[in-house]
Amino acid sequence: MPPIYDVEFNSAAHYPTDTIPELAARAEAAGFGAFWAGESNANDPVVVLSGIAARTSTILLGTAAYHVFGRSPITLAIQAATLQDLSRGRLLLGLGVSNRTIAAWHGATFDRPLRRMSEYVTVVRQAASGERVEYQGQVYTTGKGFKLAWKPNHPSPPIYVAAMGPQMARLAGQIAEGVLLNMATPAKIGEVAERVRAGALEAGRDPSHLEVVAKVRVAVHPDASAARHRLRQLITFYNLAEFYSDMLMAQGFQEEVLAVKAAHGQGGFRAAMAQVDDAYMDRLPVVLAKSVEEAKDRLQPYLQAGVTRLIIPYVPTGDAVLEDARRFLRAWESAA
Questions:
Q1: Residue 255 and residue 291: Cα distance in Å, rounded?
Q2: pLDDT at 136 (0 to 100)
Q3: The pLDDT of residue 318
Q4: What pLDDT shows up at residue 12?
Q5: Comparing C-alpha atoms, which of 232, 216, 214 is closest to residue 281?
Q6: Which ranges of the chain does DSSP label H, i.e. alpha helix?
Q7: Are 214 and 184 in contact (CB under 8 A)?
Q8: Which of 112, 128, 168, 331 would bridge 81 by S-S if both were Cys, CB 3.0 to 4.6 A apart?
C-alpha cells in the first residue's frame, strides 16, 4: 500500500481560526488523507473539525489528541457522534491522558492514567454508538440510562490512544484501533509498535488491523537554516515539557535534555533554546528539507519503522505563516 500522509497546522504558530477550513480544503486537494487538530490551550479540535467538515468531502478529520481531563466521556461521546454524522463518518478520535499541568487547568488531579484511559474509551465507544450506558467504574460513572436522543447514522469512530510509555502502548493494543506517537524516532516507533501488537495479542485481537500513527514535524525552505528558529523553539518546549522530556531522554538524548533544563533554570527559555544546537536538532524526529521531495525521502525511515499514518505537523519558516502553509500545500500537490 502507498504511504498515507496526513497534515496538521498548529505547530510553532497560530493560524487565524477562520483560515483553517481553507487550509484543510487545500490539503484535501493536495492529496492528504486526514487533517488533524490537537488540544491544549489553543483552538478546540471538534469546533475546528466541524468547520472543516462543512468545507470538505473526503479528507478524514482527526483529533491528536483530545485529553481525557477536559470533558466527561459522555460529553465527548455526544461530540464524537455529532461530528461523525456531520462529516458522514470521517472522524478519527485520538485520545490522550496529557499531563499534570493540563489536568490542573481543568481542576482535576492527574492519577491512574491507565485505568482512566481504559474506562474513558469504554464509555465513549458505547455512548457514541447510540447504546444505552450505565457504567460504574473506578474512575468514571455515568448514572442511569444515558442514551443519545438519536440513532447515529455512522458507527462509533475509530479510537487511537496516545502512548509514550510501555504500559499505555500495550493498552492501546488491547482497547483501541491504533496508537498515536509524538516526538518518536524510528527506533522508538518500532519499539512501541511491538508493544502495541503484544497488547493486541494479549486481548485476543488481530494486531494486523491496528494502526500506528506518528507525528513528524516538517519544515520546507530552500535555505534549511531559515527553518531552524521555529523548530528550535518547538524542540526546546518538548525538552522542558512533562513526560516528553523523559521520553526524549529514554531515546538517548539525556545529556542534551539535561543541558536544556539546566540552562532554562539559570537563564530562562532563551538560554534553553541556545542549548538546542544544529547537531542535536538533526538527530531528533523532525525533518528540515529544501523541497517536498526531499522531505518525503527523509520521512521514509518512519514509514519503514511501521507507521501506517504519518502526520506532518507543518512548521512555518517565517512570520507569514498562512502564506507559508499555502505554499507548502501547493508544493505537496505539485509533487504528488
A1: 32
A2: 97
A3: 84
A4: 84
A5: 232
A6: 20-30, 45-55, 73-87, 100-105, 113-128, 166-175, 186-202, 228-240, 244-248, 254-274, 278-281, 292-304, 321-335
A7: yes
A8: 128
Cα–Cα distance measured from residue 230 to residue 232, given in angstroms and rounded to the nearest whole number = 5
- Give the amino acid at 212: V
- Give the orientation angle of helix 45-55 with respect to helix 20-30, to 10 degrees: 60
User: In the numeric block, which cell numbers belong to residue 319?
Assistant: 512570520
How deeply is 149 buried, as exposed, middle or buried, from its count of CB atoms within 10 A (0-12, 13-18, 19+)?
A: exposed
Instruction: Sketch the domain layout of the chain as residue ranges.
Output: 4-218+287-335
DSSP 97-150: ---HHHHHHTT-----HHHHHHHHHHHHHHHHTT--B--B-SS-B--S-B--SS
C-alpha cell recorded at residue 260: 536544556
> Exposed/middle/buried for 255, CB within 10 Å: 0-12, 13-18, 19+?
exposed
Tell me the C-alpha distance between 135 and 221, whole Å: 51
* Predicted local confidence at residue 91, as pLDDT: 98
Q: Are 174 and 181 in contact (CB under 8 A)?
A: no
Q: Which three cell numbers stand for residue 39?
A: 488540544
pTM: 0.96
DSSP secondary structure letter of residue 227: G
Residue 81 CA to residue 91 CA, distance in Å, equals: 9
Q: Is 279 exposed, middle or buried (0-12, 13-18, 19+ CB in 10 A)?
A: exposed
Backbone angles phi, psi at 293, to 5 degrees: -60, -45
Round to whole Å and give the CA distance between 161 and 169: 8
Which residues in the chain land under pLDDT 70? none
